[in-house]
Write the structure tokens for this entry.
Amino acid sequence: MEHAKLSVKGITFASSVTWGLTVLVVGAINLVRPGYGSMFLGLVSSIYPGYHADPTLASVMIGTLYALLDGAIGGAIFAWAYNACHSCCKK
């Protein structure tokens, strides 16, 4: 059975949106209920330079933009690596 390759554009877009929405939703809930997701947002702030896990709208937007970019890069690398392994392992 022939296995299909992954769409690099599709995986890049999907992972970007998924990770961006995750950070956006947790950050938005943290605005309404301070303390919610604070450990998660602290972890995110330790990874992204310039982002601070403060319950402010500007902080949520900066974190979301970083997450969109990070998700896109991670998705593109994953799809590329999968396709490279897929090509090498064909019979």
